[in-house]
Amino acid sequence: MDLKDKSIWEKELGVLPIKINPQEGENRYLMLNGGYSDFCMQTFDDEDAKLDEIAWSSSTKNFIKIFDDKILIRNWYENKSEEIKKDNIVSNFNQFYNYIFSKSYKTENDLAPFIIDIFRQLRNITLERSEPVEALNILFKLLISIDEDYNNIDAQKWYIEDVNLPDSFDYFVEVLRNGVRNAKPNLDIILRHSSGKIFQEANRNVLFFNPQRDLFGGASSTLVTQSIAYTSIHYTPQYLARTIVENCINNIQLNDFTELTILDPSCGSSEFLIEILKQLKNKNFTGIINIKGFDSSINAIETSKFLLHYENRTQWDNRININLRVVEDSLTQDWGINDIVLMNPPFTSFELIKDKEVKNVVRETLQEFIPKGKPNQASAFFLKSVNSLNQNGVIGCVLPSSIYTLDIYVKLRQYITSEIDLKLVGKMGNFVFDDALTDVSIFTGIKKETTINPTLIWTKNEKGVAQEALRELRKLQKNNEVAKSSILYSIYKPAHFPILDQSWRIISLKENKFISELDLYLRARKLIKLQDLFKVNQGALLGVKNIFEISDEQYHALVEQDQKIFRPLIDNSTVNNGHFSEKKFVWYPYNKTGLMIENEEDLHHYAFAQESLVPHKNKLQNRSGLKDKWWALTRPRNWQFESDIKLYSSRFGNSSSFGFYPKGNGVVVEGNAFVPKKGMSDDDLYFYLAIFSSDYFDLLLSIFSKELAGGKWYDLGNNFIKNIPLPNVHNDIIRNSSPYQRLVNIGKELSSGNSSVRHLSKNSLSFFYPEI
Q1: Helix/strand/coil for 461
Q2: CATH for 238-450 (3.40.50.150, 1.10.10.10, 2.40.30.110, 3.40.50.1950)
Q3: What DSSP state is assigned to residue 706?
Q4: Which of 91, 377, 504, 509 could in theory staple to 485 by disulfide, Cβ–Cβ 3.0 to 4.6 A?
């Protein structure tokens, strides 16, 4: 094993080698894998190399020098160097990597937090007199002062604004130049390899800095981030941008291009654009490059100008044509025709788009494919990106996972599939963005016809798994492997795509194999879909809290006249492991014809109404459409007007969230009712209760439904569970089988409150389903 061959490290560890400075022509690399254990490496001896400076400035801890018979590991933070024999490393390569990983922990003395701390102190000194753009330009000057006299900076050369500096600016320059311990800052390495972390955090500080004074009269350093936790402002992590760019470049024949046009229509601080320039330089691309970037934030565009023009000047001899523009809405702009489109578009739900004009543009962009409904703004960007590609052009983007799964996007997905050869489709989960729990997916593809299925990435919804999965993806690609799978992630090419009807839902490799067997059972009619057996109805919406609900004790204290208006309440607190507890009741003034109480005079007949509803009349009248009949529920759901025996579930949950109420007069609130489409006996419903309450059903939910943040918690609404395969009790073979009767008995035990029998359903279920 020749450790001086960087491809060995790619194949064995899944790291991406990027030259620290291609202009130097030396074999000195950043070995990147997702930020957790990146390190520097060089394959030649250089006694004068400033290892600590390079490692610290590139946001890593360790620098590895490879000799013929040994390896030197230098850790700037521990101020420690150690030598290991080459033979020991070759025979224990993974253990060696794990050792590097253990020495790569994050600290407040790392480059990005060190610089941001200085920046925050500067902001306190200016007492927020400066505008956000001005504050960023102060940061630009601070960084440039590492190499240049800050009093004589050529603003035109650096593409920055000439701003007034605070009186104590020289102090902060000295602090930065001194660095940390033995590590001094290297401006070129910082701007080319660490700028993303610095400027993403700096922009956060600029946008959400709290202008309130603190107790001692200074400006507060508190960041106001709560209000943006679920909005569209999500900065692309470097490891994600790196993988997307890498896969885009691998799917385009660079030798066929003498000129490349690259667009990012929501460029932010240009994480994608800087990354693709680094990787194109790594590939020795010598053609003309046209860069286009749009963003609604002037701060983002100013940052992009600063960084991209630096890259152009130092690495490309100013051969790149850079066109960056501040726009109110990228969707209204002419995107032109491009060879590569890269983006992390705004993840704004339709309801949260405040500007009516922006809403109209989203509607107009998607009109052909989503004429109704409330699409996410990102879906409009996705469509426009595909339509702005050259033939054989490539697209790489971050998307909300809802675009892959929701029915509203079916026609859009069909169109994308007809236009784009899907190359990489991955579900990364809820732990990608630092400031939001958005469920994130990635996408790369090329504009041409093909019959080859994409590579799929499934990740378990846990922190840190996305980085590990993308490193394994690189290993798989470098080694030309077919698939990789573990309990945390799966990477593979499915036999067909989409896997689940018209959904792009990504599942694990084991689930994919399992679902292939389920499909055979469905084709043979051994199983049928849940939607063919049940109509799943949404529960009532009361419209107010703690007014229409009463406890069991309060109900029994009511007079008989009032008790007739109340019915048992079914919600998340009353259903557990198949058992329904009659401990809450809800005001439900309805019969089979609708609302029973037509006017306020009739309302006077009920003591509860006079004591508990009339005092809240104004509040109840404020509900939309209920001013005249203010004692009614906001959404009573007319399917509940008549009592009937049904299965029930909470709105969100798992196999423990189903129940059965034999009396049939319960009212579902914030949950779902499973109404048989064809007559079923009580035993049939107990049979299905046992299935719904089994561990096996959790597996089915993990495949077919939407997993919520935290894991093992799913949306139990019709749109997400309607395709789950179930045995058909209308088949006499099934109804007359002994497993059917065993499951009926288990369902009865669960309904009575005996949850210990749940595990007994496993053997009986194997009669109806493929083996787990």
Answers
A1: coil
A2: 3.40.50.150
A3: P
A4: 509
CA distances from 504 to 115, 384, 410, 477 (A): 42, 19, 9, 22
The first and second tokens of residue 315, run together, are 């690495």
Cα 505 from chain centroid? 14
Contact between 585 and 549 (Cβ < 8 Å): yes
CB–CB of 281/315 below 8 Å? yes
Confidence of residue 583 (pLDDT cuts 50, 70, 90): very high
Rounded-to-10 torsion of CA 369, 372, 374, 379: 10
Q: H or E stretch including 293?
A: strand 288-295
- Tell me which amino acid residue 114 is: F
pLDDT at position 133, please? Answer: 82
- pTM (two decimals): 0.80
483-517 per-position pLDDT tens digit: 999 999 999 999 889 988 788 999 999 989 988 89
Strand partners, 671: 650
Residues of the chain with CATH 3.40.50.150: 238-450
Residue with tokens 């500096």: 165
Sheet holding 80-85, edge to edge: 16-19, 28-32, 39-42, 62-66, 70-75, 80-85
> What is the three-state SS of 247-281?
HHHHCCCHHHCCEEEEEECCCCCCHHHHHHHHHHH
- Helix, strand, or coil here: 703? helix
Q: How many residues does the chain have?
A: 772
220 phi-psi bin (left φ>0, alpha ψ -120 to 50, beta other): beta
